[in-house]
Amino acid sequence: MHRINPLNLLAITVTAFTFLVSATSQAQMKKSAGVLAFQGKNEARLKDAFAIFDINKDGRVSRVEFRLQTGDMFFVRDTNKDSRLTPDEIPNAGPKVFAAADRDGDGKLTPHEFGEASFMKFETYDLNKDGSITREEVRSVVKKNQR
Length: 147
What we know:
Layout: H1 6-12, H2 17-22, E1 30-32, E2 35-37, H3 40-53, E3 61-62, H4 63-70, H5 73-77, H6 95-101, H7 111-116, H8 122-125, E4 132-133, H9 135-145
Antiparallel strand pairs: 1-2, 3-4
């Protein structure tokens, strides 16, 4: 089974697919025929995400693969080890996404809030409900979240 070194996880994954791709500003993306076209770093990040999440290398991320790779993300991102995540610890979430996840409005995410956040839910990315996530589904979610 493929396990990733925590240092590589920090370097490549921020929290989940949305953060991986949305980390690069919209100015570095172009719209082509109404579809967000990924270029350069964005496509590389998406490729890197799939290299990590797609454990069996079938081009799709299953629910099991997603859970295996997201399970420890909270603790990897909790750089000050206070069991709470601040916007600084997940900067690519953006204020709206962070606020939506911060159920009690205290400006920090607990492990429970983090785990319940939409960006951590497999269903957020499995748009066609076939039990796996493709790169195109991730692109669609990112496009929707950037409106």
